[in-house]
Amino acid sequence: MNKQKGFSIIMAIFILIVLSLLGSYMVKLSGVQHATAVSAVQSSRAYYAARTGVEWGLAQLLNNDNCAASSTLTINNFSVIVSCNNQGVSYNEGDLNSNGLADDDFYIYKINSAASYGNFISADYVYRHIEMTVKK
Description:
alpha+beta, rod-shaped
């Protein structure tokens, strides 16, 4: 019976090592999940900042008849670059209002918005781009 005296201490050390490894893995997994959640929230914020930029560009076009080549906005710490391009061709769908063809012309505009946060090499970098085509 003297052969089994040290067996319980070895088993206790083994169980402590396994439990400490399992605990450290759970802490690491929790950190990854937290970082993923933060990244998802920032991504969503970037999308809505880009969408706000597109809507701002559309409002400028419709209200002011101004298609600015490029504008930079700051929305909730996001840098938003909005550009508007006239596609350069006048279109005519025919006599839509029975007043003749001259007043039925329209143009196609393309509005781009790019929202970014942070630097490209940083861990918290987020970028979203939205493009809208408008007939006016």
